[in-house]
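re: ur question from earlier - yeah i can do the single chain one, its not a big deal. heres the input i used so u can compare w yours
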Amino acid sequence: MSTPSTNIVLLLFLIVGVGNVIGKLKIAGIALGPTTGVLLFGILAGLLHFEVPPIIKAVFFTLYLFALGTMIGPGLVHVVTSKASINYLVLSVCTVVLMAASIFLVARVFDLNNIVVGGLSAGAMTTSAVLAAAQGMVSAGGITLPDGMNASEASNLLGSSYAITYLCGTFGLIVLVKQSPGIETPAIHAHRGATALEWSGKSGIQKVL
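and the output i got, formated as tokens:
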């Protein structure tokens, strides 16, 4: 009889199923969502030291990025072609600069190595593409590893630091989005309403704001 410890496919669907259930649970009225739920339960399952073949890790992570890209693509095109595109560009640049400065300061204060910094950067900004790039560089030997650490250990450390900070980054973002309607100015509210109407008109969906 197959068990999660001997059948990696069974383990995969178990983590996805339980993670989705966890994602629907609400903490102080806030649901974590399926992605965070699966990640959280995956971390707990990882404490049992299940061996997952590297090819399965690579394939499923690539599929995740593919699905994420196809989901975000239409919205990205709309943002880039909108009148407010320059505002989004400036906001993006400021966000990247602030993130880089914050990560640099934290790394210096707590004396973190470059592997931890890579995972922390990806998780704190909930940017999985950064994790994929960092793991690719580790596998290709493009990053100088800390003394006594091999590529496999570095990849695991990247994933661990990413997962922990991803949970904090996601929860913080959810709280911010929940609270933002109460702090937005009338001008921001008007712009948001106009953008929503423009988007719904293009997609053929009528919305009442």
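Residues 202-209 have pLDDT under 50 and may be disordered. not sure if urs matches, ping me
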